[in-house]
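queue> pop job 88
queue> type: inverse folding (structure -> sequence)
queue> payload:
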């Protein structure tokens, strides 16, 4: 079966979750008796990049122009919430060497939520077609002759409140990734996972949690085999002051492949948000062993810092700094640094604009590449309902 260019290989677990997602709102008329809202967003973006493919020696500059249409439909009832958001993206890339490319990238998400007295249910589904990129550490890197990436996922969540402070959380997910042009760098895979966790509200400002889970990662590759990943994680979230909030988690994971080889890794995540007057500071860092598009697992460190400053009611400034490092036994280390200062201006209640500069420095096994890009965006949004 083909849909949006997907060659579907749905296991029974995905089919069951999709059936549940379709049938749950039909069990009661309350889902259609609530408040409805409909939002429309149109976004036009132009990017001029002097090394759009982030090549080391075969640099190619390009102008990327895209038009995105997004419609968000929300039905909010007393015990139900249904949200459907389709997105259509039309993109034209004019390379300085190699002619023009025109691509169409559709995507859609559907979220269903049901609340009972002490239990809530959530199902999130997502399907998307996007441009394939061999560089996983940097967004918006265009590669000629890499084809498209096809994503689909279903995530189910059940939260049961035991008492005023304690709750149990069960999460199960299925994810499928395919590529229109397969290679050693782009390997289709299926991932099925489930976890159960416990959360406790220590105070009004502090809560803790602990979870255990397992994931089956199955790449469609002749060289990479099926891998089972077992994880355990402890976390804490705290609002320290009116201006400062922080979170942290620490855990371990055990990887077992088809050759009965096992490997133990640790993972952590840190985050903090601070606001003073008209300026917001946000810092996040995470380290974990994650699957790659090549069908194997690599240790990945990612950090991100964002500063937003509201100049006045119409103007704001921001700067983003991101660094990612990927290491593993099967490949050489690779890293990427991204710096993006931006200027935002509110033209009217419905029109917004932005101007950004982006610098990228990547290092893939000692082969370094640089990219400079100027980005202009104009967006229009309004509420169609109510």
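queue> result:
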């Amino acid at each position: 079966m083909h849909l949006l260019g997907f060659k579907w290989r749905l296991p029974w677990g995905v089919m069951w979750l999709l059936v549940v997602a379709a049938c749950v709102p039909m069990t009661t008329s309350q889902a259609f008796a609530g408040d409805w809202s409909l939002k429309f967003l149109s976004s036009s973006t132009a990017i001029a990049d002097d090394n759009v493919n982030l090549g080391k020696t075969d640099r190619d500059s390009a102008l990327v122009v895209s038009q995105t249409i997004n419609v968000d439909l929300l039905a909010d009832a007393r015990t139900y919430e249904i949200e459907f958001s389709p997105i259509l993206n039309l993109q034209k890339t004019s390379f300085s060497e190699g002619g023009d490319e025109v691509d169409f990238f559709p995507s859609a998400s559907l979220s269903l939520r049901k609340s009972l007295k002490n239990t809530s249910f959530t199902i999130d589904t997502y399907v998307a077609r996007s441009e394939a990129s061999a560089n996983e550490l940097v967004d918006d890197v265009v590669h000629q002759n890499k084809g498209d990436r096809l994503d689909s996922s279903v995530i189910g969540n059940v939260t049961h409140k035991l008492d005023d402070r304690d709750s149990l959380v069960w999460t199960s997910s299925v994810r499928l990734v395919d590529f229109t042009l397969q290679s050693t760098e782009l390997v289709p895979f299926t991932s099925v996972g489930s976890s159960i966790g416990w959360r406790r509200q220590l105070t009004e400002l502090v809560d803790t949690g602990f979870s255990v889970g397992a994931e089956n990662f199955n790449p469609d590759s002749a060289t990479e085999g099926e891998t089972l990943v077992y994880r355990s994680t402890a976390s804490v979230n705290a609002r320290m002051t009116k201006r400062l909030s922080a979170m942290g988690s620490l855990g371990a994971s055990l990887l077992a492949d088809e050759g009965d080889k096992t490997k133990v890794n640790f993972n952590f995540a840190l985050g903090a948000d601070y606001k003073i007057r008209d300026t917001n500071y946000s810092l996040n860092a995470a380290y974990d062993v994650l699957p790659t598009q090549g069908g194997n697992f690599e240790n990945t460190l990612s950090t991100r810092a964002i500063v937003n400053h509201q100049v006045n009611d119409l103007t704001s400034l921001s700067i983003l700094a991101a660094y990612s490092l990927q290491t593993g036994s099967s490949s050489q280390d690779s890293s990427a640094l991204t710096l993006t200062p931006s200027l935002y201006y509110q033209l009217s209640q419905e029109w917004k604009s932005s101007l950004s500069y982006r610098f990228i420095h990547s290092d893939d096994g000692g082969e370094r590449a640089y990219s400079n890009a100027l980005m202009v965006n104009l967006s229009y949004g309004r509420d169609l309902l109510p």
